[in-house]
Please model this.
Amino acid sequence: MLSELSLPLKLVFAAAIGGFISLDYVAVAQTMLSVPLVVGPIMGWLLGSFKVGLAVGVAFQLLWLVDSAFGAHIPPDGSAAAQISTIGVLCALPDGGVPEWALSVSALVAIPFALLSSVAEGWVRKANNRLQRWVVDKLEEEPRRVDRKGIRPLSLATTLGILLLLVKAVIIIGVGSLLCFLAIYYMKLWQAPDELLRGLGWGWRMLPAVGVGAAVCYFTRRKRGVALALLGLSAALFLLWIV
Amino acid sequence: MDNGTKKDGLRPLTMPGVFLRSLLIQGLWNFEGMQNMGFLLAIDPALRDTKEGEELSQARRRHSAFFNTHPYLANAILGASIHYESRNLPEEAMRVKERFIGALGAMGDNLFWNGLRPAVIGIAILFAGAAPWIFLALYNLLHLPARFALLWSGWMKGDGVVNDMAAFKPTKIIKGVRYISLVALGAVLPLVCWEGGLVQGLAVLIFAGLGFFLSKYRLPNHLIWLACLAVMVGVSFGIGDLFEI
Model:
């Protein structure tokens, strides 16, 4: 596994693997391999702690549960955020026992990168404008050359478009993870006040709560929606009480 | 068949090939034509099977026009376009595209992105450590066969594929999965955020409520969380170990 590698290699390989998985987000197949719930645990498993990856993945999944890529709308890249957070935390604290303040710090670094990733996605789509114009021009200009074995310019343009996305994802995940690692590492060295660490830890627990609240709001058309959510809540509390 | 048409039908492996290519329908997503290049990439093997020469070039130019719908439901339009193109009815193929992209786009977003996906995620999270695999298995078992079936049905029936889709009563499914999502989200809240203690439980409920009310004003979730984090740090400095209560 990657956990046995040196730190730079760990970061490079994790970013490369994460970049490939990120292609599933929009460009390739959309089998949901790239959603935080899945990619977080995969990264965690690769870096030695499935459990930490799962905690991070679930939190980011719930934070942006109903913020999806509709048409031209590009939401914050939860996939990149989950990967950056998991990689950063597990590189800074490789021997397990990840405290909640570290997860909170990792989220503070990962969220701006999730937003940056969605901006960069827009840049790639603008670059794709040029690629598609080039393909259309080729179809207009040289119909005979592109006739027989498929449309070479189209295959080339699609490959280039996907490569651009890959490069974007690898850079964002790589740089984000490095900064996340540095933030947690220096926070550890600094020996921050207990109150700050405790507050950050509490904040981490509230990350999914905010997302769940927002998602319930999205699904609620009438009061019945809130009643259903409360029904689920009561059932879970009852089960927890029994256990 | 009319002039320019090479064969009556497609080769046996063409449709599986079209299906695999349809997985790349957003491979060259761009602001001008949106999924146009992905659509052309997917339909091209079928066009090559049924047309040649100038007819093929014209068909390719036709299908490089603007196209944007839900990437899963696009297969219904793709199949229907192949149905009409292979019968040398290009106007019908273009009519199907223009007529259905908007409706299928809206339906797909509600059915998959903000319907099945959150519902399956909510259910999967209840299974703790197995959540990623349960989610992947359940979700892919639903959407991959649906994508193939839509392509096939479109190819066989043309715009009749829409009747096949309507038979599944998608609006009822959307309503049902929304209800499932709500119950699952309610159940997920204590399992993920709460570790015991009255004050912590109350804090979880308060911040979930904040998420609920503030998202009505289109405030981004991450900003709401940052505000919560600042409050938590402030409380920790001001009051002390609140969650021990």
User: Anything to note?
Assistant: Chain B has two domains: 14-196, 197-245. DSSP finds ten helices and no strands in chain B. Residues 221 and 245 of chain B are 28 Å apart (CA to CA). Chain B touches chain A through 95 residues (CB under 8 Å).
